[in-house]
Design goal:
Helices cover about 25% and strands about 30% of the residues. The protein is an alpha+beta fold. The chain folds into two domains: about 25 residues; about 80 residues, no CATH class. It is globular and about 60 Å long.
């Protein structure tokens, strides 16, 4: 019998609260303050989706052939914001990806498109709850604030 070894595509790792606090503090000091000043209002610090939504999108992406996911930093304008309060704020867009060999032992994680009745469409998901402006008291983790331990 022929055994095929599947190579892991893992690139990340679990981190502790100190790491999360440090990198989010870095972001807030180096990017968020500038973005908020330029916008004239507080930019978003987090984007939240339910586990159910994430599982459903990941399942759909897998069925479509995805082997990974990209999270693009993005910003809403008047035509794309799902709520008027989100205009100008940053968000995240999840996009299913597929590893593609590009030669010389190199590969690239390409955005995944599928054929639909409307033509080629990207496998993507957006529309998170942004904080600010919509922060759920006690549930959102903001830099410099203690993390709730469950």
């Amino acid at each position: 019998m022929l055994t095929i070894e599947k190579k892991s595509l893992k690139v990340g790792k679990r981190v502790n609260a100190a790491h999360v606090e440090k990198v989010t503090k870095n972001y807030k000091q180096e990017r968020w303050a500038y973005n908020s000043e330029r916008l004239g209002k507080e930019d978003s610090l987090s984007a939240w989706w339910s586990i159910e939504e994430l599982e459903q999108f990941i399942a759909e992406a897998k069925v479509s052939g995805a082997d990974g996911m990209k999270f693009y930093f993005a910003a809403y304008d008047e035509n794309t914001a799902p709520r008027k309060e989100y205009v100008g704020l940053q968000t995240l867009v999840m996009v299913g990806t597929k590893k593609k060999e590009i030669g010389n032992g190199m590969s690239k994680n390409k955005d995944l498109y599928i054929q639909t009745a409307n033509g080629n469409e990207i496998v993507a998901y957006n529309g998170a709850n942004l904080c600010p402006p919509f922060c759920q008291t006690g549930n959102d983790v903001e830099p410099g604030i203690n993390f709730d331990i469950i």
